[in-house]
Amino acid sequence: MKAHHGADDKVVLLVDDEPDILELLELTLTGMGLKVDKVRGVQEAMSFLAVNRYDLCLTDMRMPDGDGLELVKYIAAKKIDVPVAVITAHGNMENAITVLKAGAFDYLAKPLSLEQLRNLVKSALSLPQAAHTDDKQLLGHATAMQKVRDLIEKVARSQAPVHISGESGSGKELAAKLIVQSGARRDQPMVSVNCGAIPENLMESEFFGHKKGAFTGADKDKEGLFQAANGGTLFLDEVADLPLAMQVKLLRAIQEKRVRKVGATTEDPVDVRLISATHNDLAERVKQGQFRQDLFYRLNVIPIQMPTLRELREDIPQIAQQKLKQLSSNAVVRFSGEALEALKNYNFPGNVRELENIIERALALCSGDLIEVQDLHLMPAERTQQEASEMGDKYPLPDYLDRVEKEALLEALQKTGFNRTAAAKLLGLTFRTIRYRMERLGIKSPVGADDAD
Fold this sequence. Notes:
Elements: E1 11-15, H1 19-31, E2 35-39, H2 42-51, E3 56-60, E4 62-63, E5 66-67, H3 68-77, E6 84-88, H4 93-102, E7 106-109, H5 114-125, H6 143-155, E8 162-165, H7 172-181, E9 190-194, H8 203-208, H9 225-228, E10 233-237, H10 244-256, E11 258-259, E12 268-269, E13 273-278, H11 282-287, H12 293-299, E14 302-305, H13 316-327, E15 334-335, H14 337-345, H15 351-365, E16 370-371, H16 373-376, H17 385-390, H18 397-415, H19 420-427, H20 431-441
Parallel strand pairs: 1-2, 1-3, 3-6, 6-7, 8-13, 8-14, 9-10, 10-13, 15-16
Antiparallel strand pairs: 4-5, 11-12
Helix pairs in contact: 2-3, 6-7, 13-15, 18-19, 19-20
């Protein structure tokens, strides 16, 4: 049972009960300069894994004495440091998603594509010895943040699609970058796209590319986002904003691992890991019929929920002081005790991004090397129901409407760092309208704010 390989050999364990499949896999892998051990069942594979070191385990899903999922769970339970990939039946995405959720590195669908097999093997062999997230970038000792760090470390050693949810400014893109930096594709391109920023009529061309002459203005061939990310990672930010027609095309590209340029007659294979993010509740979008359920399940294989700053309240002083150190270029500037307490008790609707904006503004406003409460210019806390009642609830109506409008404006401005153009877009107003309403309600932009026109 003990296999004899050199210490420097890269060794793959193949698990399949079909001799012809085993032979095809062995020929392909030995052609890549790898050593191979072959077994024909789950129990035998477990015996080999118990006494040998492997760089990859590649197993079929269905075998007489069990299935590949059992092997994935066994490797996870025994904490064996080997990526495992599962060969699934063509079109059976349910099995593929199940093994990915259980901890598989990746999957291959039958009939086997040797090009996809080689890409998978190269990625698996590129995994670092251990994935460790940079604690300096994801600050906080709270359980919610530790859970995120642990999940990032786990999913970095997989090719499973990851969906990151959380409020605006909570660090979704940072989490995506950390997954890539700790994984097998760290030296390959990471292409980020804001799905809400692409005009719908250009979306297919942006994602998949186009051929010269495919439409008016297509004066040359163009690569799409999938081609640009080939071999690496495609980060789909604000994925909830994808129109339904594009969701269908994206689902097909993910399942087939092939894309067709606009105006082309053939498809091109692509090897892309997908990470998506949104501040919206994607499951709720599915219920409302605004997001396809099959695409949701395909993207949401490993979900990561970024905590809000409100959930990290005890960590806010540490996070604020670390951010101050970064933003002040290590100059000798500090918070007063009262300023730290005010930050700790603030609700941060814009989360870490808002905290950074507040600190940058405070650095510009503070006199000397001490940041006081008044330098922070924190927005008033949201009123409790009791306070609202004391203010006369909805009467007189003009005053009530002014209060509601002012709160909505302040919230939008705070989320956008007092960028009036961005806040107007968020509220569905024109720039002229938001400027007028700010003047009418006595809302002034803080000194140093990004008050773009």
